[in-house]
Hints:
Number of domains: 1
Radius of gyration: 16 Å
CATH architecture: Beta Barrel
Distance between the termini: 40 Å
Oligomer: single chain
Strand content: 35-45%
Order of helices and strands: HHEEEEEEEE
Helix content: under 10%
Shape: globular
Largest sheet: 5 strands, antiparallel
CATH class: Mainly Beta
Amino acid sequence: MLTIPRAWREKPQRYLFKGGKCKDCGFVTYPARKVCPKCHSENIETVDLPREGKIITYTIVYSAPEGFGDFSPYPLAIVELTNGARLMLQIVDTDLDKVQIGEKVNVVFRRLLVEGNAGIIIYGPKATVVEDK
């Protein structure tokens, strides 16, 4: 469950699409971490993440967890951004048959969930497949 205080703390990563980059080895993470998972340095800077990437792997979710039933079936992918950061994103606004490994995607912001009785909407990153022109 995502609480309002947690959503506020996560605002830079969720709404500004910020990540962390290790100043020692250059490894990029999303969300930002206090310690680099690659070299264990604490020398981390906040960086803007690119909105372009490609699908590394994916699955189709048919039995959605509570609160996500309206979305199923939906593709869930590991996306590698152009700077090397990898994150798990729901693929939206795309036919299931267009989701393929290696496909280029753009990161977009969409509704993640509606929280509590007040109906507070929490937004976050998702991805769309780039259409060939």
